[in-house]
Amino acid sequence: MSEEKKSLNFIEHIIEEDLRNGFNNEELRFRFPPEPNGYLHIGHASSICLNFGLGLRYKAPVNLRFDDTNPEKEEQEFVDAIKRDVAWLGFEWNHECYASDYFPQLYLWAIEFIKQGKAYVDSQSSEQMAEQKGTPTVPGTDSPYRNRSVEENLELFERMKNGDFEAGTHVLRAKIDMASSNMLMRDPIMYRIMHKYHHRTANNWCIYPMYDWAHGESDYIEQVSHSFCTLEFAMHRELYDWFLDQVRDSDKVRPKQREFARRNLSHTIVSKRKLLKLVQEGHVTAWDDPRMPTISGLRRRGYTPTSIRNFADTIGIAKRENLIDVSLLEYCVREDLNKSAHRVMGVLDPVKVVITNYPEGQEEWLDAENNPEEEVMTYRKVPFSREIYIEREDFREEANRKFFRLKLGGEVRLKNAYIIKAESCVKDEEGNITEIHCTYDEDSRSGSGTEASMRKVKGTLHWVSINHAVESEVRIYDRLFTNEAPDSHKEKDFLEFINPDSLKVVTGYVEPSLKDAKEGETFQFQRLGYFCVDRDSNADNLVFNKTVGLRDTWAKLADK
């Protein structure tokens, strides 16, 4: 049976229908329009993959346009981070654009609105305007300033631009319909006064356009054919179209706004305001803290661009919001790293093993495969000696038949090395095991081809040679929130659900092949999970972040 062709999502159906109805394929143009008031998060990744994916599918340009209309919250740091994230995901934009590039044109259009009686300066307070707007079931009432003369409106608007008034004293409103069933159409604000430094225009402007005014007109200036946004903007579409109707030339492309559903991720917050709170209040170290759902945080934790693109492709585009289990994202990174990450050995909770019949002072370097998924197998050397570390949980004095690791009188194979047998153990005054004394079968070395090397034992342990081990700082990350929907509880603060065990820092010991590992390199610590080198690493202190375990342990906890 032949493989079925992948079906189109509803966004692609919209484009295909437009093309069938005569829209010129050469005029297709898309955009990704982030506001530079924070770092991009996993929710943005879906939008990035959608818009740039459409560009690749239809061989159409995609602009990266910054919606920089609010200097109170926007910074160059966020612009730079957004550009890094989009590029890291593997996408190239056609033009780097800014809404602030269009401030002069937006201002000239606003002047024309005033001259045509389609806009006026309102001098009410924000509280008065809110009261005067009515409710969804009660029509609004006209502002007492709605019928100001064109001349007065032009003069006031010019003075607003020149900085003659304090913030909040005047706004420019579009004159539409105070009785509209869509409250967004009840004379929406186009401009407000803000005496703030802008990261691109400095102090050149004292008035700044509102999103609804700037966004659609920016799409139009760039000749974006399809403007895709999330469902909360569905009610804004009528206003988007109204503004376009006032400025559009019939011989130019008219942008079309369409909406898709957010894909919320379990155990995660994707509100920029709440993410900022996490940073400002010190619940995390920064926007790129590996516990954060930001693209920068995921990159630092060891996620790959491929894993995030695969995740976005797997969850797809839909018309209804739903909650995606974060385990799907973790599955995607496991699948990708399984193909690419070298297998190495590290011990995070060490206990000393002394192989009593191995000659003192002797060492040997054993062959270890880097990744069994490689088409052409490559190998590295790992040192073996009389004293090694194993994980503390891999030894018990007594255990039942289902315990396949090391126990007194029992045998295990050391990965890439020998079969050992536990003979005795040493304890401190408190009863903690400090040493395990073992013997080894010198003919059982892995790959040697001897009969003893073929002998089957049920357990295989990872280990490191104590004399050669590299001490490392290992940061073990878990989900930041214990609740699957931490911001869905109206009666509770989302901070109440912060996981107190979201970060544990331990001292681990890794094989010497990792001594010169570079920032961002990812490895599978055998039997433990996937880890990557953190940017805090240096020649004197190797730092690893745990990306994800080898299997979903949360699922087991949930079942219990």
TrEMBL record:
Localization terms from the record: Cytoplasm
UniProt motif ('HIGH' region) ranges: 34-44
GO MF annotation terms: ligase activity
Amino acids binding L-glutamine: D67, Y211
The Glutamyl/glutaminyl-tRNA synthetase class Ib anti-codon binding domain, residue ranges: 341-441
Binding site for ATP: E35, P36, N37, T230, V270, S271, K272
Keywords, ordered alphabetically: Aminoacyl-tRNA synthetase, ATP-binding, Cytoplasm, Ligase, Nucleotide-binding, Protein biosynthesis
SUPFAM superfamilies, per database record: Nucleotidylyl transferase, Ribosomal protein L25-like
Entry's EC annotation: 6.1.1.18
Chief localization: cytoplasm
InterPro entries from the UniProt entry: aa-tRNA-synth_I_CS (IPR001412), Gln-tRNA-synth (IPR004514), Gln/Glu-tRNA_Ligase (IPR050132), Gln_tRNA_ligase_bac (IPR022861), Glu/Gln-tRNA-synth (IPR000924), Glu/Gln-tRNA-synth_Ib_cat-dom (IPR020058), Glu/Gln-tRNA-synth_Ib_codon-bd (IPR020059), Glu_tRNA_lig_a-bdl (IPR020061)
Domain of life of the organism encoding this protein: Bacteria
PROSITE patterns: AA_TRNA_LIGASE_I (PS00178)
Domain spans labelled tRNA synthetases class I (E and Q) anti-codon binding: 460-534
Catalytic function, reaction form: tRNA(Gln) + L-glutamine + ATP = L-glutaminyl-tRNA(Gln) + AMP + diphosphate
The Glutamyl/glutaminyl-tRNA synthetase class Ib catalytic domain, residue ranges: 28-338
Residue ranges, annotated region (Disordered): 125-146
Assembly mode: Monomer.
Family the UniProt entry places it in: Belongs to the class-I aminoacyl-tRNA synthetase family.
Entry-linked HAMAP family: Gln_tRNA_synth (MF_00126)
Annotated protein name in UniProt: Glutamine--tRNA ligase
Gene that encodes it: glnS
